[in-house]
Amino acid sequence: MTKSYLFEVKMSCGGCSGAITRVLNKQKEAEKVKDFTVSLPKQLVLVESDTLSLDDVNDIIAKTQKTIVNKKEVIQGWKLPEAEGEKVEWDAVPTPVVM
Amino acid sequence: MTKSYLFEVKMSCGGCSGAITRVLNKQKEAEKVKDFTVSLPKQLVLVESDTLSLDDVNDIIAKTQKTIVNKKEVIQGWKLPEAEGEKVEWDAVPTPVVM
């Protein structure tokens, strides 16, 4: 089952977001990450995976030495708003219902 | 014997150089790196170590996903010029004499 994980990460330039993009692309090539989006203006990284846990993805992003401010699983299918200026309210992003 | 390694690394902001500083600080705490200097304006990283090889240090820096443009061992004791504007000519940095 695919899961979606949202990370708030401190990225101050395209070099910072590029580093995270590269580390996640490697996981995508290894078919561990299904898809991902990195948004420098929103300071957010959204990762979809069939196999990795939230902590697994945390460890992958942490390799870049970027500071992870916040992380949570979000409902599958949630996407980052495409408009650059559209802010995402962290607490408003829906999380999966625990059975 | 302490060895000194010089790396030319693409860093575009303080977040980029900070990531490299953090990964090298961890190695310093683990006493694998003796000392190091990261210069964002010069795009250079100088690392001194008693135990690590050039390739070891390469792998540590590469974890941050920053692009390593160039690398070489330089003579022990060589330091980065402190003046920000002072450019370093890569080929002019002396390398150890091979016996």
Automatic annotation (TrEMBL), chains A, B:
<dbReference type="GO" id="GO:0006825">
    <property type="term" value="P:copper ion transport"/>
</dbReference>
<keyword id="KW-0143">Chaperone</keyword>
<dbReference type="GO" id="GO:0016531">
    <property type="term" value="F:copper chaperone activity"/>
</dbReference>
<dbReference type="InterPro" id="IPR051881">
    <property type="entry name" value="Copper_transport_ATOX1-like"/>
</dbReference>
<dbReference type="InterPro" id="IPR006121">
    <property type="entry name" value="HMA_dom"/>
</dbReference>
<keyword id="KW-0813">Transport</keyword>
<keyword id="KW-0186">Copper</keyword>
<dbReference type="GO" id="GO:0005829">
    <property type="term" value="C:cytosol"/>
</dbReference>
<keyword id="KW-0187">Copper transport</keyword>
<feature type="domain" description="HMA">
    <location>
        <begin position="2"/>
        <end position="72"/>
    </location>
</feature>
<keyword id="KW-0406">Ion transport</keyword>
<dbReference type="Pfam" id="PF00403">
    <property type="entry name" value="HMA"/>
</dbReference>
<comment type="similarity">
    <text>Belongs to the ATX1 family.</text>
</comment>
<dbReference type="GO" id="GO:0046872">
    <property type="term" value="F:metal ion binding"/>
</dbReference>
<keyword id="KW-0479">Metal-binding</keyword>
<protein>
    <recommendedName>
        <fullName>HMA domain-containing protein</fullName>
    </recommendedName>
</protein>
<dbReference type="InterPro" id="IPR036163">
    <property type="entry name" value="HMA_dom_sf"/>
</dbReference>
